């Protein structure tokens, strides 16, 4: 109340000043202003110096109600400073407005002084959801708070405006026992449950609102909530809505409001459903064996807290089963279906540490720590995309990026990061060593990596049986240094190091990259590996690490003047490229890149290739080769016999005016297990060549023969082996 009184009094002062006659001729020559508009001071007693710029007389006015601020002299003149004495604050944070007023010129200014408190407001229901029997009576729940109940605003929220008011608003709080209590009326319905929310709020002296809500569910007149079911029992309802009074108990392994919880589906080439992420919850069984994905009815219904132990009513909930892999989603869940939710900690979760090869479909939608993993693409960020196509520029043409991850057994899949994740491109380098990554095991499609790869269109975009979603940056515990990992680089091309049309390694001197015909020289072009930060407010090459590639004594590789000039993350001259028609009609085979290197002296159980690729199509979007393959030989002769290792596809860069669902505003990252027969060779060859004579016509995926020269880029390439 005191705060409201001094604000009202000060507003009256400002109103009086504003109503005075404006003397424009005098104001031209007057000056009055505080050098700083806001100060934050500690809770201890002391003095605060406030600097003022003025060319005349002025007065300092303190609200009378704020006795904790004192000033010995209120009359000032010219450029000066004054000292405010402030008392110690043994309570909550507080603030006060200090006014500067020059009567002669009718000018005024204000300064806000905010003081920390010895204590901070606490308002928290440790158990967010609770239940009461249908008989009615007292409800007692734990409430941790240091705020007097009379200073809180209490709001009772029923599901609908016309719902019966069955909660008695006889609220009481005992600070000794931390018991918050009230009473409810009996439920007269023999079958229906009913629910209500009790919302407590308090606005502190800094106008920060502290809120905690208790969700209450009342049993029917028979005092029944339903029957507890285990996760396999609920799976039996797949394809239907549950009609029985069932509930499940489990641990929440996601958190509401996290931008990297779930998929943000690309509904059209230029639209993304971000709300699906906001409605996504993962709950696993208490033993950690099974998991459900829950899609709540609205984002507001997602009241789930990470690690919380919950009981959820399932009557009326839809159960969806998707195959290959088998996974289950519960739909139509609302906040009113949460019977009970207790705060928990990570230590209460069942421990699940696995290698990629040990994952099963039962691990889907559960929290798992993957062992001995690395990010083998040593360049760029979690989302090395053209930000002009992202939410930062209101384009909504790419909602996530799958980053390649590999483990010590040679297996690989993708780490998924949504474009609304704050740390995805915060300027830090990706770790180069190995370690663990924890998160939710999921299966999601990504048509910008793969397309027309299945019989049915709804199945297009399969990028692997499993992926993982990290929920915080701290979930990624991978050593930063390359020498701390389980693998060693045999050769690496982080950026173009080109001499006479041939690319040479940027780490060591083992081998080279050439084009399949000696009439084509390799060139340089851009990629989007700038580390960040990016966006409209982050223009220019300001990151000390550039694109995460270091040369010499820790200097960044790319210092091009126009790198990231528009905030979209481009790094100029950062990719190795070739321009060609890509199909040799005379010999009826594709052309491509040839990598030579030595494997002498290498003894290992795992040999692998990692690279990033993109078709840098021109203004028409036509003519770039879609289907490629990796092959190897000991001779390097393009017309000789090569052994195929793997097929892969290369996406086209998008055209903004005609963005297709299969185009990728980034380079695609690929891992290839190499045969151990390649070891022990003084020189061995890999070739990345076009496998099929098919390209896009500008809108199709692959419908036209290769007929025009186009450019394909390799943003990164490395060959590594396990130590």
Explain what this protein looks like in three dimensions.
A hairpin with a 2-residue loop joins strand 37 and strand 38. By secondary structure, this protein is mainly beta. The strands form 13 sheets. Strands 11, 14, 17, 18, 19, 20, 23, 24, 25, 26, 27 and 28 form a twelve-stranded mixed sheet that branches. Helices cover 4% and strands 41% of the residues. The protein starts with a helix and ends with a strand.
In short:
This protein has 723 residues and is mainly beta. It contains four helices and 54 strands.
Percent of residues in beta strands?
Answer: 35-45%
> End-to-end distance, in Å?
70 Å
Largest sheet: 12 strands, mixed
User: What does the average pLDDT come to?
Assistant: 93
> Whole-number radius of gyration?
32 Å
Write down the overall geometry. Answer: globular
What topology does this entry show?
Elements: H1 2-18, H2 24-27, E1 32-34, E2 38-41, E3 46-54, E4 57-61, E5 69-70, E6 75-77, E7 80-86, E8 94-102, E9 107-115, E10 123-124, E11 127-132, E12 137-142, E13 144-145, E14 153-157, E15 167-174, E16 179-184, E17 194-203, E18 209-218, E19 227-228, H3 231-235, E20 246-252, E21 266-268, E22 271-272, H4 275-278, E23 280-285, E24 291-296, E25 309-313, E26 318-322, E27 327-333, E28 338-342, E29 353-354, E30 367-374, E31 400-407, E32 412-418, E33 434-442, E34 467-469, E35 476-478, E36 487-493, E37 498-499, E38 502-503, E39 512-515, E40 523-527, E41 550-551, E42 555-556, E43 571-580, E44 583-584, E45 589-590, E46 592-597, E47 607-616, E48 622-625, E49 627-633, E50 643-649, E51 668-674, E52 684-690, E53 695-697, E54 710-722
